[in-house]
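Justification of resources, computational component.

The compute hours requested in this renewal are based largely on the per-chain cost of generating structure records like the one below. Each record pairs the submitted sequence with a full structure-token output. That output is archived, and it is also reused by downstream analysis tasks.
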Amino acid sequence: MAGVLLLDVEADELHLRLRRDWESFAGDEAEILTLLEEDIAAKGREWGGRRVLEFLEEYLSHTVRITDREAMRVADFPARLRRLYREAVEPVVLEYKTHLPAYRAWAAAGGLSEAQLPEPEGWVEVPEELRLSNDMFIVTVHGRSMEPLIPDGSRCIFRRHVGGSRQGRRLLIQRVTDGDPST
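The structure output for this chain reads:
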């Protein structure tokens, strides 16, 4: 599956998310496919979402497989789009380019509840507007001690080596001892 298109019928607005890993399997066509999402989005703003879908169904159905439309109630289009994308698309993990490692360590107001594992539990795709680096990682917050700022179950992105002032930043701090829990 290449991605998900979601039409807000009332606003005639098209919401879309396409995969970002074209280069891992599309060969020479990867460059063109990478530009496809912005092209469809631009046409949606210019023509309206309904007209873009009709165009895709009419003229591109022989080139790109387009499934039948499914009606659904949507309260939060960005959230629904993210969920549908996760359910429909299995992207190739491009480490530190589209995905960050997720560690099993749990963050709570008191710090890490267990030491970070040397290998990540998995890799999680992150929004494309984030500039990733290989010192970034994801930890899931468990518990309500950081609410309302950070809700229980939130996935938080951290950077291992933060330089400069820590003023105004949220930090995840791990206490390392000699093995004596009282120190």
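Strands lie at 3-8, 13-18, 99-108, 111-112, 122-125, 136-141, 155-159. Residues 93-183 form one domain.
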